[in-house]
Amino acid sequence: MTTLEWSANEAMQTFGGAGYLQGTKMERIYRETKVLSIGGDSLEIMKDLAARQMGF
């Protein structure tokens, strides 16, 4: 879990149900962190690419 995901989760705990209201900044941030975590970060992609080039 990245720092961004952890921060968004903690903020949702703080805001409670109000964090899920559509149109709020908290809802948007939380939703975007979930989308970003699906694709993986650039470091993970670069490690995978390096491993493939080395034959692993």
UniProtKB/TrEMBL annotation:
Organism per entry: Fontimonas thermophila
InterPro entries: AcylCo_DH-like_C, AcylCo_DH/oxidase_C
Lineage: Bacteria, Pseudomonadati, Pseudomonadota, Gammaproteobacteria, Nevskiales
Gene3D superfamilies the record matches: Butyryl-CoA Dehydrogenase, subunit A, domain 3
Keywords from the named record: Flavoprotein
The name this protein goes by in its record: Acyl-CoA dehydrogenase, C-terminal domain
SUPFAM superfamilies in UniProt: Acyl-CoA dehydrogenase C-terminal domain-like
An example molecular function term from Gene Ontology annotations: oxidoreductase activity, acting on the CH-CH group of donors
Domain Acyl-CoA dehydrogenase/oxidase C-terminal: 3-54
